[in-house]
Structures are given as structure tokens and as C-alpha cells.
Amino acid sequence: MTAPTPDAVDVLIIGAGISGIGAARYLRTEHPTKTFAILEARAAAGGTWDLFRYPGIRSDSDLHTFGYEFKPWTDKQAIADAPRILDYLNETIEENGLADHIRYQHRVVSAAWSSDEARWTVDIERTDTGEPVRISARWIFCGSGYYDYDEGYSPDFPGQDRFRGTIVHPQHWPDDLDYKDKRVVVIGSGATAVTLLPAMADDAAHITMLQRTPTYIIPLPREDAIANTLKKVLGNERGYALTRQKNILQQRVLYELCQRFPGPARRVIRKINESQLPEGFPVDTHFNPPYNPWDQRLCVVPDADLYRAIRGGKASVVTDRIETFTETGIRLESGTELEADIIVTATGLNIKIIGGIDLTVDGRPVSLPDTVVYRGMMLSGVPNFALAIGYTNASWTLKIGLICEYFCKLLRHLDAHGYDAVWAEADPAMPTRPLLDFGAGYVQRALDRLPKQGPKAPWLMSMSYYTDRRLLRGDVADENLHFARARQPEPAD
Fold first, then answer.
1. If we measure between CA atoms, which residue out of 70, 83, 138, 155 comes closest to residue 343?
2. Fewest beta carbons less than 10 Å away: which of 12, 177, 421, 492?
3. Which of 423, 315, 444, 408 is nearest to 366 (CA)?
4. At residue 362, what are phi and psi to the nearest 5 degrees?
5. Would the CA dihedral through 290, 294, 295, 301 be positive or negative?
6. Distance, CA of 85 to CA of 79 (rounded, Å)
């Protein structure tokens, strides 16, 4: 493959996490003559799996579906820890010769599209030197996800300045934080909190998960016995492929059952929790959310480690509201005081669609809330721009793989017909709603900044792998897509 020139590429990929690395591999395979570069604002690849360093960090999806379709997951752990996932991503980089295409510490600031040239001019800041860099690209593929990688969400708690201990957000975990024999309070009830509790329990004097609202939690085995048997009998590739299809179906069936029969699903989950917790534990207080299953994402605990920590007496759960921080801990609205040496604010993340990049099209600023997403990957009215957003109700990477396949087919279509640009146009009269139709707090806080989705395909932001597979592996073009060639300059008089 031709190495990218310093200032011009066919495709500029933003983000060297699981989405960006996957997109680069598809490009390398499907379009070996196209030049590309991967821009990564941080100093290392891996995205989420390199950024977060808190104890016990792991996936909450099985790696047979969270992994790439083209690269079998061979580790015995199905619910895997971050170092194993990072090894997998770095292997993908090495096996596909992607390392020379990654430019670290390059943060994209803005991108301007010119219809005359059918190209993007992308302005970049070197995060290590502050030096400005400019790159021209025919296409932008934004694989930066939808989280703000600079700042997590931290509410302003009353009296937090009074607290004499240490306050930590999981997104900025100090390497030297010593919590041995310390009293720890983790504020939150999501995936991060239920990971931290068992991971820290053995070393901490005691650890408490303080939640305002419970979350649905289910145990899963860390190792998938069926998957490991299939790989042993059929080999890694065939065993992985079969396991992947099995788990895709399992994920979908669980989601559909919870959505269609929320009452029975709630009772089943409660029964599972009750069986794992100490006798007499107030399950309905701490493990019975007020919303239906899968209105927000279910939390997975591998090998029931959270319940073991609670049964062992090293961890506890408190459901209450914070009145104020004190010098020595937290006073709750019920009057209870939780003493703490360390408070971890596992209060969530912030959404930042397309990494906060300022986009313009022929000098016109692009307002994201005024756009509608086409096939889950293109912004209406924005040419040659793809974004990768995975599933919220299943493994993220399942959708990314389908998006990459469609993206490569679309490039082939443009080449075959001599086009330089393509964009989607939505009917202005089409009813819309926010892109992410999900009850999680990080989504609700960002609704006014999100692009929109329509009522049906191809404008619907589908959360079904099977629906997307039909849509994205079907015809490349439809009446919503418009194609063009670069405008030729007018001849001089």
C-alpha cells in the first residue's frame, strides 16, 4: 500500500480506539490502494481501554461479539479485563500494518468541506507541542465514539470542599492512589461502580456503593464454557464465528424479552439477585430499579464477584440521597453518615459527538442538532463524512463492523461511477427525535446537542444487529443519497 503523504490522504480516520482501528483494517483490506491516516489525540492507541486505569476495568460485553468479526478472540475470558483487550487491539494494529499510519497526539480542531475541490481541509493541534497541522482528505471517518475523553461527569456536591480525604473520578484515576485499609465510598450504580466494588474490596478496609437509584445487575461467567469448547473442537476461526452468532442471538433475545415482558423479566432478575445475596438482604431497596429492564443498560458482574464481596462483608450498598459532604465523609438525607478516606465519583461520562470538531460545509457551520443521521453513519447535508456509533443495547463493535463494510462499499460505488462526493438529504417535513433513544443520564444530559433520527429506515438509528445487517449489507444507494463530482474551475476569459 502507498504510504500517506504528509498533507493529503484519501481517508482520514479520527481515533485509534476499537472503531478507528477496525475502520483502518477494513480499508487496508477492501481498498488497498487508498491512502489513509489515523489521528489520535492521546499518546497511545486503544481508546477507552488505554484511557481508563481504575481497578478491575473490564468489558461489560462478551469479547466474542465485542471483538472484530475478522479477528477471533482466542483468550479464555469472555468478559475480559482491559489489558487483554489492549493486547487484542495492538495485535490487530501489528497484523495489519497499521502502526505507521497512526499519528499520535494529533487532536482535530475543525474540518472544512469544499464542494469545488470535493475535499476536507482539516486543522489539527499537536497536543504535545501545540503546533498546528493541516491535512487534506477526501473522506473523514470519525471513530472517536461519543464520550468526552477529557472530562467525566462530576456533579457539584454540597460541601465537597470540606472533605479532608481524596476525591477521585474513575476517568482520571491516579497511578499512586493507595486505598489499602482505607474506607472508600463509590458514588454511582453503573458499570464502573459495580466493577470497582469487588476489585477494591479485598484491599480496602471497607467499600460502600452509594447509589441514588438502583441498576439492573445480572451475573455472567467470566469464561464462556461453550465458546471455549467450540474453539477447542472446531478451531479458533470456526469456533469463534459460531460463538459470535450464538451470542448475538442471546443478546437480542434477552433484550426483546425484557422489552416485551418487563414484568416477568424484572421478577427473574430480582430472583437471581436474591439468590446471590445474603439471607435477609433488602433486595427491593438496593437491587430493584424503578424503571423497566433495558430502559437503561444492564450491568454485568463476572462470576458474581459483586455479590461475593457483599456476602464477605467487605462491601456494602446504600441507597439514599446526598445531603452534603462533611470533613470525614458524606451525610445522607436520611441522616446516616458514611465515613470515608476516599470518595470515588463514578457518576458517569459526558457525551461529545464527533469529538467536538467544528464542521463547516462550503463555509456554512454544521449544527449537529439540525442534522439527521442516515443509516446510522452519515450526517444529512454533510458530504463524505462518516461517524461510527455502536449499540447501546448490545456489543458496540457489532454495529461498527457493519458500518465499516457499508463505508467500503460506498467508496467502491463512488469509484465505479466516477463520483467524488456523496451526501444524504432528509425530507424537512420528516418527524425526528434525538439520535440516542436511551434513558441513561449521560444521554439525557446531551439531548439538545445530539443529531436527530427519523421514524424509519434509513433514518432510524436502529439498535438491532439483524435489522442493520439487512440495511447495511443491502443496496448501497437509494433516493436519499446524492452524488457529485468535484466542480471544475471556470475557464479564464
1. 155
2. 492
3. 423
4. 50, 45
5. positive
6. 10
User: Which three cell numbers, joined as nine digits, stand for 296?
Assistant: 437503561
Burial of 457 (0-12, 13-18, 19+ CB in 10 A): middle
Say yes or no: domain 154-347 is CATH 3.50.50.60.
yes
Cα 341 to the chain's mean position, in Å? 31
E strand spans, 289-372: 299-302, 315-319, 322-325, 329-332, 337-339, 342-345, 349-351, 358-361, 364-365
311's grid cell: 456476602
A 10 A CB-CB count for 123 gives 15
Q: CATH 3.50.50.60 spans which residues of the chain?
A: 8-149+350-484, 154-347
Q: Which residues fall within 8 angstroms of residue 294, CB to CB, at 6 or more apart?
A: 216, 255, 258, 259, 393
pLDDT means per 10 residues, the chain with 493 residues, are: 63 97 98 97 95 94 96 96 97 98 97 97 96 97 87 87 96 94 96 96 98 95 96 96 96 94 96 96 95 89 96 97 97 97 92 91 96 97 96 92 98 97 96 81 77 95 94 95 80 46
Q: How far apart are CA 372 and CA 20, in angstroms?
A: 22
The CATH label, of 3.40.50.1820, 3.40.50.300, 3.40.30.10, 3.50.50.60, for the domain at 8-149+350-484 is: 3.50.50.60
Q: What share of residues in the chain are helix, strand, coil (percent, to 5)?
A: 30, 25, 40
Distances (CA, A) of 54 to 49, 51, 203: 11, 9, 14
